[in-house]
UniProtKB/TrEMBL annotation:
Domain ABC transporter: 404-647
Biased composition (Basic and acidic residues): 670-682
UniProt name for this protein: ABC transporter ATP-binding protein
Biased composition (Gly residues): 1-10
Ranges for region Disordered: 1-31, 662-682
The keyword Transmembrane is annotated on this UniProt entry: yes
Superkingdom, natural source: Bacteria
Classification of source organism: Bacteria, Bacillati, Actinomycetota, Actinomycetes, Kitasatosporales
SUPFAM superfamilies for the chain: ABC transporter transmembrane region, P-loop containing nucleoside triphosphate hydrolases
Membrane topology: Multi-pass membrane protein
Length: 682
């Protein structure tokens, strides 16, 4: 393809001829290893990373992860955070003292003398154990209460911050192909793990403190017991690490398969794909593909279960041997008098409880490490969002504008090879209706988006009266410009909310303005026919919801634009899917209705019949305005060689297409019935 610019003809990119496709191929790339097929998929980026990282590195990162989560919790609720930390420490102390008190109970029981005397002597320590356990229960209850207050607050705070920043990011950033992946990754994984970070940290802290408590008690009982504990837990710790890593890797393989199969499940169940799935009998192909993945999941499930059983057996064997050796050493120490019998019993209890705690610590620290990688990405994304917010100057546009002056405006999309607009100038005055026409890709919509403040010009200026748009808050332009696009959003809200949302509300309405807007757009009949009229949800996802046809959605979208009641109304081909009568009614309302004297209306259309009554028509080609004037001026325009201008050529071409198809005399009859001349679509 080639295009014409001011500089001449630009050669199109070189293309290789398309080769024949293979006669058989898999529906999507498929690797030997499940993880290979979707390696690089944004949502799988860090899965299994904890299993690939050294334990030392994980341990080194834990303090900074903990600091960050604590900071986040403190910002959300300082009181609850301090309470959780203090109570958690208190609970760990109670647990350690409980263990020491248990040793005293054992000492009392293991001394010589009558059984009743020994029991009697043990009673105070027993009461102490009970008291400490009760105190620990109360403190744990406090931790749970603090966590209950803290976690939802942190969740709400981070989620709101994430959505607020994303909703305001400038449109050009969202246009970037990588943006959607980044935002979804941050939402699906980062935000999820950030929400879970507080309870996870509490769990980790609980386990670590319990381990430290046990170690402390052993040291108090006899300094030689600490190395004994270390020796006993090393094999157990090793087995726990292996098992945790195995689980992380398996999980990443498993989730890849799950995502793949969900795609086919979704295609088979989805309402939008339902007609095509049936009309093209795609069911069989989709079911076969689903079954293929289901079998792989089945095999993966079995493999996973077996592997877990093997790792668990190995862990238990190694751990069991180590504990056996430790208990033997304890027995020897007690028998040889190194350690009093009661201290030996206490050590037995401490070592036993440490084994379970160690597994929790290992799993929790792997999780904290891997989740922190997703949280890092989320934070980087939020930082990027902060840098991409609309510029704020504190200045607002005037409520009414007399003239918008566009002077030599240029715009190049990020990473685009050529500018979409190169030197456009125009003057739009209040009360006038202007049209942008021209071939596909000539820059009409881009110009409209610049007028709406959705993009900032990369060159040139746009003035609203004397105010340059760069000097005002971008949002103040957006509230003054109502834009109706060709593929408007079908808001899954009530009919009324679909009209009012353009004015920034879905719960309040100006009834008279809403009715006026739907009458002008032709949506009044659509809404009147709905079972609950204005209150009908326009989505089948809701009970009693209704689906509209494409043309009727367009009428609702036009009503939304009219309801917004801005200084500028841009209709970017919203009538493309309307029937001829509906389209005519919309244009008639906009062009000949009670037009607000201070509104500038911009119509973008390929149907030139719709724009003949506009005050001024701008003809775009390759990002420039090549002609402008009213319909008659443009029709009369000739080049120096006597050729009709671009507009005249396009109009004549469209008109000729209908005239050729009309029976003799029908044209006059049709014209007599219509208030305005309307040539046909191209
Ligand atoms: N979001 C975008 N990112 C990058 N390039 C874009 C983007 N939108 C449009 N373009 C490019 O900018 C140029 C002008 O596009 P624009 O949509 O303004 O044309 P148009 O005249 O409105 O076309 P159409 O009649 O097909 O709607 C085209 O080359 C198009 O490919």
């Amino acid at each position: 393809m080639s295009g014409t610019t001011a500089g001449g003809t630009v050669p199109g990119p070189r293309r290789k001829p398309l080769s024949l496709p293979p006669a058989s191929a898999s529906a999507a790339p498929e690797g030997e290893e499940v993880g290979d097929e979707l390696a690089g998929a944004y949502w799988a980026q860090w899965d299994g990373e904890a299993a690939r990282t050294s334990v030392w590195r994980i341990l080194r990162r834990l303090p900074s992860i903990s600091r960050r989560v604590l900071g986040m919790a403190y910002r959300a609720d300082p009181r609850a955070t301090v309470m959780v930390v203090v109570l958690q420490l208190g609970s760990a102390l109670m647990s350690a003292f409980g263990l020491l008190a248990s040793v005293r109970v054992l000492s009392a029981l293991f001394t010589q003398g009558a059984t009743s005397d020994r029991i009697h002597n043990a009673l105070p320590s027993l009461a102490l154990v009970a008291g400490l356990m009760a105190a620990q229960g109360v403190l744990d209850y406090g931790v749970a209460r603090g966590q209950a207050a803290l976690t939802p607050k942190v969740r709400r705070a981070v989620e709101q911050e994430f959505l607020r920043l994303n909703a305001h990011v400038r449109l050009e950033a969202v246009d970037d192909a990588n943006w959607s992946d980044e935002a979804h990754k941050a939402n699906d994984r980062g935000l999820y793990y950030m929400r879970e970070a507080v309870p996870q940290l509490i769990q980790l802290a609980h386990a670590v403190l319990a381990l430290i408590g046990s170690a402390g008690v052993l040291t108090v009982l006899h300094p030689a017991l600490l190395p004994l504990l270390v020796v006993s837990v090393i094999p157990q710790g090793y087995a726990a690490i292996r098992s945790a890593r195995q689980k992380f890797l398996s999980h990443s393989r498993y989730s890849t398969l799950q995502r793949r199969i969900r795609l086919f499940t979704w295609l088979l169940l989805d309402r939008d794909s339902a007609p095509e799935v049936r009309s093209s009998t795609a069911q069989r192909a989709l079911l076969e593909e689903h079954e293929r993945f289901a079998r792989r999941i089945e095999a993966e499930d079995t493999r996973l279960g077996r592997e877990e059983a093997n790792v668990s057996l190995a862990g238990r064997t190694v751990g069991g041997l180590a504990v056996g050796a430790t208990y033997a050493a304890l027995g020897w120490m007690t028998a040889t008098g190194w350690l009093p019998l009661a201290a030996g019993g206490g050590a037995f209890l401490a070592i036993r409880s440490s084994r379970g705690t160690l597994v929790s610590v290992v799993t929790a620290m792997h999780m904290a490490y891997e989740h922190a990688l997703w949280i890092d990405d989320l934070e980087a994304h939020l930082e990027r969002c902060r840098g991409l917010q609309p510029h704020r100057t504190g200045r607002q546009l005037p409520d009414h504008v007399k003239t918008i002056t566009v002077a030599d405006v240029r715009y190049t999309y990020p990473e685009a090879a050529r500018p979409a607009l190169c030197g456009v100038s125009m003057t739009l005055t209040a009360g006038s209706t202007v049209a942008f026409v021209g071939a596909n890709g000539s820059g009409k919509s881009t110009m409209a988006k610049l007028l709406a403040g959705l993009y900032a010009p990369t060159g040139g200026t746009i003035h609203w009266d004397e105010v340059e748009v760069r000097e005002v808050d971008a949002e103040s332009i957006q509230t003054q410009v109502a834009m109706v696009l060709q593929d408007p959003v079908e808001w899954p809200l009530t009919a009324l909310a679909n009209v009012t949302i353009g004015a920034g509300t879905i719960t309040e309405a100006d009834p008279a303005r809403a009715r006026q807007a739907v009458v002008e757009s032709g949506a009044d009949r659509v809404i009147a026919a709905l079972p609950q009229q204005w209150a009908t949800p326009l989505s089948k996802r809701f009970k009693g919801g209704q689906e509209l046809s494409g043309g009727n959605w367009s009428k609702v979208a036009v009503a939304r634009g009219l309801y917004q009641d801005g200084c500028v109304l841009v209709l970017d081909e919203p009538t493309a899917s309307m029937d001829a009568r509906a389209e005519h009614a919309v244009y008639n309302a906009v062009l000949h209705g009670p037009r607000r004297p201070d509104r500038i209306t911009v119509l973008i259309s390929h149907r030139l019949s719709s724009v003949t009554d506009c005050d001024r028509i701008y003809v775009f080609r390759d990002g420039r305005v090549i002609e402008s004037g009213d319909h008659h001026t443009l029709m009369a325009r000739r080049s120096p060689t006597g050729e009709p201008g671009e507009y005249a050529q396009m109009f004549t071409l469209q008109a000729a297409a209908y005239q050729a198809a009309m029976p003799p005399g029908a044209g006059q009859a049709a014209r007599d019935r219509q208030p305005h001349t309307r040539p046909a679509d191209s």
